[in-house]
Amino acid sequence: MPTLALAPTPDGLNRAAGMLRAGDLVAFPTETVYGLGADARNDIAVARIFQAKGRPRFNPLIVHLPDLAAAREIAAFPDEALRLASAFWPGALTLVLPLKGTALSPLVTAGLDTVALRVPDHPVAHTLLETFGGPVAAPSANPSGKVSPTRAAHVLEGLSGRIEAVVDGGPCPVGVESTIIGFTPTPALLRPGGLPVEAIEACLGGALTRHAKGARPNAPGQLASHYAPAAAVRLGRTTPEPGDLWLGFGPTPGADLNLSESGDLVEAAANLFHHLRSLDARAAPGQGISVAPVPPHGLGHAINDRLRRAAAPR
Predict the structure, then answer these.
(1) Cα(107)–Cα(33) distance, rounded to whole angstroms?
(2) What is the tens place of the pLDDT at every residue in 59-115?
(3) 72 among the known binding-site residues?
(4) Do β-strands 62-64 and 257-258 pair in parallel, antiparallel, or remain unpaired?
(5) S-S: 45 plus which of 38, 100, 147, 215, CB 3.0-4.6 Å?
(6) Distance from C-alpha of 233 to C-alpha of 313, rounded to nearest angstrom
(7) Residue 32 assigned to a binding site
(8) How far is CA 153 from each of CA 15, 148, 160, 257, rounded to the nearest angstrom?
(9) Going from the N-terminus, what domains does the chain have, and what CATH number goes with each?
């Protein structure tokens, strides 16, 4: 089955929406990474996401919607969730909320009574969601556990022949997945991401709690080993291990690639997955990737989270 590359034109997006209605899988850009979209109400279509990605069945999916009004038809919003949605949607924020009704395929929620929702801030994603007119389940458009895609070419590298189409909207400007917040019942950080934790805590006027280590995943991106290249990843290296390729940050003479020579965390987040892919493709058998330290503040939380998962035993 050839995978179609669609342009983000009215004709291309109309065709993509029609394919979603027919139960096809369509990858599309968001501001964070490319998502692998399916009609969230269609059991077979959602099951095909897991098949295409090789994704563990207990890992829930994020449902993408065009606006807050559509999200409130699917989930109940406590006051603090409504405050966050009003402040940061559309944007790189996913909220895990109590599910309302039974319209969604149960595969989307992995059997939980909560659902992860997001309103993406990308014109192509917004137009596609508006044109489709329903909820779209969309994890990152890559084989499960591998490096997330920030360009249409990345999607085709991993999923060509497994999905029907990809809408090519160019590079994703944020480059790491959304921040995920749950309510247990107090607001809890389930996954750091493209929206800094500090901004969320400032909006709420208090600190977030943290997801317990070892707990069953109740949101995407909580597996210990995830976003993993084939090459071994070694973190916090001020010099590379002998023979390793070196991924730098800030002034890093001799680095093979640099997340951001100026130390800009936004630039680093946007480059992270692309550079990991590039170094992984360049690595010889047995050669690893040494990674320079990235400061743990702002988007550094999300970058370090992805790097730790990339480096985890597998």
Answers:
(1) 22
(2) 789 999 999 999 999 999 999 999 999 999 999 999 999 999 888 988 888 778 899
(3) no
(4) unpaired
(5) 38
(6) 10
(7) yes
(8) 20, 12, 10, 19
(9) 4-210 (3.90.870.10), 233-311 (no CATH)
